[in-house]
Amino acid sequence: MRGLGPHTRQDYIRHVRSFAAFLGRSPDTAVAEDVRRFQLHQHEIGVRPPTINGAVSALRFLFLVTLKRRDLSRALVITRYQRKLPDVLSIDEAARLLEAAPGIKYKAALGVAYGAGLRVSEVAHLKVDDIDSKRMLIRVEQGKGRKDRNAMLSPQLLELLRVWWREGKRRGVMLPHGWLFPGRSCTDPISSRQLHRAVQEAAEVAGIRKRVSPHTLRHSFATHLLEQDVDIRVIQVLLGHSKLDTTALYTKVSTRTIHAVAGPLDRLMALMEGKTPPG
């Protein structure tokens, strides 16, 4: 009824199930001390802060909406943590990764992740009709936050998708109005797990030692656009971010942004040598 996405619903149920298992009884019998013990237990066994905060969201829903227990909701504590900078591939590494993809289907799918900046679930759930070659757009339906948006479609990416479409037709796996990247069955989309496995296999073949996932290609897409002087607000729209602060993270990993600044030591040395300081 509240329009929460399927992944959010599954996460909420999983976290509430975990809380109930910890209690050993129904959550509607919980008291504030039980909530405190559960959160301490999560910290003690090494649960990562994002997971702890996900549990807070789930339990707040349980206590406020389901059980009408505001007192228990107040007992929950959000964990503060420093967000890590994402790993980003160089343009050369991205090219090597795509070349090493295990087959044309995965090369096209990873090409969409990098060439259009789509999330792995968005890539997996694309349909043939979502590729608009006349307007040169990719239609993303019900992305994160259950929002529709348009993503960019470059001529090179369109050609790569056409190569895969012809091969898919030849294999008999490309159904009319069906999935762009079918899974093991033509009627099911490729799974996120399959795409993760394909990226890791390609990274190993390409000799890339960074921790790589399909989301790394999305990070690389945004960073490379920023380094090409594309306006950050345009990148925000292409990525489907609701807040500019989220997109601004890429300024911290853009090598061009960093290299554009003249270091204080360079200026000092130039002054000592009687030269004009850089910058």
Automatic annotation (TrEMBL):
Q: Which UniProt keywords apply?
A: DNA integration, DNA recombination, DNA-binding
**What region holds the Core-binding (CB) domain?**
1-67
The answer to whether the entry has keyword Endoplasmic reticulum is no
The Tyr recombinase domain covers 84-263
Checking PROSITE patterns in the record gives: CB (PS51900), TYR_RECOMBINASE (PS51898)
The family note in this entry says: Belongs to the 'phage' integrase family.
> Which protein are we looking at?
Site-specific integrase
What organism does the UniProt record list as the source? Answer: Phyllobacterium phragmitis
